[in-house]
Design goal:
This protein is α+β, with helices and mostly antiparallel strands and 278 residues long. The chain contains six helices and five strands; from the N terminus they run ββββααααααβ. The strands form two sheets. It has a three-stranded antiparallel β-sheet with strand order 1-4-3, with no helix packed on it. Helix 1 packs antiparallel against helix 2.
Length: 278
């Protein structure tokens, strides 16, 4: 089975008819009708997209191939696997919104990671074992699992740094907020206007800054990582669904080939007895 586009995949099932130990001179194997689907009952997992019949010669005997193109019904997989995975992925980025001092950040990230492990186990039992093609759905899960591992690793390192040097001043000023200028009060403005001291506006008092420690730096970094992981998950999900839906729409747009029929070849005079099988 080709599971590359699971769960929007299509499979081809071919049934071959032939008469063993016979040749085209002894048996004229053919079927005058198209594939009859009058007794077919709907299947809950698959739907038949098209059928085709082909007659050809192989090893000096006639073969008839009946080909069925099957399309998987993806509703069950979409609502039981894909949608919970997406919800879990957006829960994963909420790790960066949990405060450092709450004490729940590490346990929350570990819980999300273990949830991914449960989904990987379920999907490995659902998908057919095939190493010839790599399913895009499996790649999507692997990317989400990698992002979860990175978030767990970051949470552990962050907790260690905050416990060790959280109260120390951070030399990296990339996330340091600008100092806020304290605006003068009404009585101060009136006094300045009366005395016409223009220089007083130029030397307005500055509010006292909070110490820029490693803990403050980590809190600012969490906000940027939240938006970064959010964009990564959105981009990965968009590419995943674009590839699968593009494959599904392309298959639906392909015209269905009419059944191929091959007329009986002219019979030649032979001393062997000739039988006809329909």
């Amino acid at each position: 089975m080709d599971i590359q586009y699971y769960p929007f995949d299509e499979q081809t099932c071919t049934i071959t008819y032939y008469v063993s130990d016979e040749t085209k001179r002894t048996v004229q194997l053919d079927h005058y009708m198209n594939v009859d689907m009058s007794e077919y009952s709907e299947n809950s997992a698959w739907t038949i997209v098209s059928t085709n019949r082909r007659r050809y010669l192989m090893y000096d005997t006639y073969n008839i191939d009946i080909e069925f193109k099957l399309q998987r019904r993806a509703n069950f997989t979409t609502f039981t696997l894909i949608m919970p995975l997406l919800m879990l992925a957006f829960l994963n980025i909420c790790i960066f919104l949990v405060p450092i001092g709450s004490g729940e950040k590490g346990s929350f990230s570990i819980t999300i990671f273990l949830s991914y492990g449960i989904f990987v186990t379920i999907i490995s039992d659902t998908l057919p074992h095939n190493s010839l093609q790599v399913s895009f759905f499996v790649l999507f899960i692997v990317i989400l699992l990698i992002l979860s591992v990175i978030s767990v690793f970051y949470t552990i390192i962050q907790a260690k740094l905050v416990a060790a040097i959280g109260a120390k001043e951070c030399p990296w000023t990339i996330f340091k907020p600008k100092p806020k200028v304290r605006m003068p009060e009404k009585d101060e403005v009136a006094e300045i206007k009366e005395n016409k001291e223009k220089e007083a506006f130029e030397t307005l008092p500055v509010e006292e800054e909070e110490p820029y420690t490693w803990s403050v730096f980590m809190e600012k970094l969490d906000i940027y990582l939240f938006f970064l992981f959010f964009l990564l998950i959105c981009a990965t999900t968009a590419v995943f669904f674009w590839m699968l839906l593009r494959h599904a729409s392309r298959n639906n747009a392909e015209p269905v080939d009419p059944p191929v029929t091959t007329p009986y070849p002219p019979l030649t005079t032979s001393t062997l007895p000739v039988t006809s099988t329909t």
